Amino acid sequence: MALGQDGQDQLDIWRDLATAPRALLSDNHTLPLMREFNIGHIRLGVFPRVSESLSWVYLEGSQNSVGDVLDMILQALEGLAYIHSLGIAHRDAFKTNFLVQFWPESLITGVVPAVRFPEDCPPSDRVCTGLPLAGSITDGYRRNLIPEMLSGEPYDPFKLDVWQLATSLVDFDSTLGPVEAVLDDMASMDPTYRLTANEALSRLRAYIESVPPKSLLFPPVVHKNLPLQ
């Protein structure tokens, strides 16, 4: 989790999110940190056993319905909305950093590039510039980039999280117009129109609650051979 002082800020964020009392909250979907120990100057952690990333829930052979997948996406959005409420932006919120337990629950991991803003920091100052790098990770970034990140101008890291999650789900197709509209707005290339985690969560939840659960019991369409994150 940390190498000497390298990664200490992100370790502090993980401790705050992944241990009691916050780890006990139902809307906090951060992978719990059960124990820490040192090997020399390397800090390691013990976590609950999880299986695959969020992409697993709709892979061929998973036997999950569209309703199951949407439940996982809801949990991912709820987790992002929660950490955002604490002034924490993940900055690597692609689906591979949401791990799934045997009984499906989306758990946030991979907080290495995360950033936390003080409570008294005004919204207009909660911005970042450049690539979402941290600690010893200084080059070789190969993730997709939002347009405002390429410009070198300050950008909203919270909306970056939403964009990253949505673009990494590009191979998932619910075939449901309202659902696809939410995912499209999450992935908007214009930050003005891009949804916040709370907005996406509210819209998606409202749609799911408006339809009979049985109407979501069909398999999703998975688009293959797409560039994924």
TrEMBL record:
Residues 1-229 form the Protein kinase domain. It comes from the Eukaryota. One of its GO terms (molecular function) is protein kinase activity. Gene3D superfamilies: Transferase(Phosphotransferase) domain 1. InterPro entries: Kinase-like_dom_sf, Prot_kinase_dom. This is Protein kinase domain-containing protein. It comes from Schizophyllum amplum.
